[in-house]
Amino acid sequence: MAVSAEAARPTALVARGDAAYYMLSLAAVQGSAFFIQLLVAAALRPSDFAVVRTVEAWLSPLLVVAAAGLPSLAMAWVPARAGGARDALARQLRGVSLVTGAITAALTAAAALLFLPPPTGRYLALAAGLLALGALSRTMTNLMLAAGRVRATALATAAVSLVAIPVAAYGARHYGITGWMGARYLSEAALLLVVLTASRGVFPGTAEVREHPRQIVRVGGMLSASLLVRSVADNLGPIAAARFGFGGVDIGAFALATVGVAAILLAPGAIGNLAIRRFAVTATQPGELRAAIRQGILFMLVPSVLPCVVFALAGELVLRTFFPQYQGTAALMSVVLWSAPCRAVTALMGGVLVAVHRSSDTLRLNLVCLAVAVALQWSLSSVWGVWGSAWAVLLTDIVTVLLYLLAVRWRIAGSPVPVAP
User: Fold this and answer.
1) Does residue 74 contact residue 194 with C-beta atoms inside 8 Å?
2) CA 277 to centroid of chain Cα atoms
3) Longest C-alpha distance within the chain, in Å?
4) Which of 137, 152, 218, 342 could lock 192 by a disulfide, CB 3.0 to 4.6 Å apart?
5) Burial level of 132, CB count in 10 A (0-12/13-18/19+)?
6) Is the alpha carbon torsion for 386, 58, 156, 174 positive or negative?
7) What dihedral do alpha carbons 62, 67, 69, 73 form, nearest 10°?
8) CB neighbours (10 Å) of residue 89?
9) Dist CA 324 CA 253 (whole Å)
10) d(CA 374, CA 59)
11) What are the pLDDT digits (tens) for 44-74?
12) How far is 348 from 11, CA to CA, in rounded Å?
């Protein structure tokens, strides 16, 4: 089943006045996660925070596996159906997410204890249950958005996120890594409970219409595979740092810089999600599409380059004021932070490819970029340690954005983009 241009538009699922609420639902979880990471970094020793970031680096791609593309299918398929067929599909996606989340969590816990060194393996095994909760909560959140319940979803997400910030800060400060993990479980469970409560009565139908399992696996697999490969590539730096056994303050600074990259990408990410609508509308008009892409690139670069420049000029002052335990590491962190503008433009180009029905291109490109990331991390990290890992992150993102720009230019060169069947 092809994803229509209409389904690809973030705000096409809601009334025009609900766009701000949609933006809130996108930013709330990411924004709270950023502040929580900053508070945890300030509360923990650098070595403990490095463990936290390594566990988070593993959880990010594993959550993509656990979700199995079902949140994306919810956004793409549910709005195109009505009545009983829509309700039956929603129930089916919800049920499948329960199964995929539970299986992924069990396999992750076992593999972490068997193959990862302590303490990372032990803490990842303990955190595996977050995958089951996260897969279901994200599927349910997107089902609510797809049904047009944007305001209820946004307010629920924002409320849980605000409560999670002080809980995580208290847990990390008083109970260390264990307190951070307990706070993660509480916030994830609270989000799921709130979304499930808000969804009561939204999909009341009793029809037994069901999608063919092969179709769900094929489309969901394509979407999740592309996201998974990209997530692994983005998180390869912290994973490589743990693999090569880097220690000291530098590894904590590297982990803190990855949090900074995520923070810088909050605004560009929201802009990019909204830009997909314009790309889809102009997909069959190469001239207008190219103009929209140029405008989008400008909107990506301004909010992502500016923080990097500020930190390059005043990084040591920022660290001395807010994170004194990381003084002397501003240069290392700045190298990692400059990957943010590259990732912002890459995400925008990925949205263009999805809008012009070339989702398979993103999977191919991400596989190539993952191979580049592995090669650079292995060669540079083994020689120059954490500095090599930082430069490997930046060089990989430079190669990635160039490949995406070339792919988009090739796909829209001169002729109208074919409409998906």
Assistant:
1) no
2) 20
3) 63
4) 137
5) buried
6) negative
7) -160
8) 25
9) 11
10) 19
11) 998 899 899 889 888 988 998 898 878 777 7
12) 16
356-371 tens-digit pLDDT? 767 778 889 999 999 9
Burial of 387 (0-12, 13-18, 19+ CB in 10 A): middle
> Contact at 8 Å (CB) between 401 and 245?
no
273, pLDDT greater than 80: no
Closest C-alpha among 399, 276, 296 to residue 345 = 296
Distance CA 356, CA 410 (A): 12
- Copy the structure tokens of residue 307: 């923080």
Distance CA 291, CA 167 (A): 45
3-state SS class at 7: helix
**CA 318/CA 300 separation, integer angstroms:** 24
Asked whether the predicted pLDDT for residue 7 surpasses 60, the reply is no
Q: Yes or no: say if 283 and 6 are a contact pair by the CB < 8 Å rule.
A: no
- Both tokens of 51, joined, read 């463990």
| Per-residue b or e along 48-87, where b marks 16 or more CB atoms closer than 10 Å to that residue's CB | bbbbbbbbbbbbbbbbbbbbbbbbbbbbbbbbebeeebbb
The amino acid sitting at 82 is A
Separation of alpha carbons 275 and 325, rounded Å? 40
Question: Following DSSP, what letter does each residue of 221-275 receive, concatenated?
Answer: HHHHHHHHHHHHHHTHHHHHHHHTT--HHHHHHHHHHHHHHHHHTHHHHHHHHHH
- Local structure of residue 78 (DSSP, 8 states): G
Residue 169 tokens read as: 């800060």
- How would you class 223 by CB atoms within 10 Å of its CB: exposed for 0-12, middle for 13-18, buried for 19 or more? buried
Residue 290's CB: how many other CB atoms inside 10 A? Answer: 16
169, 43 Cβ separation under 8 angstroms: yes
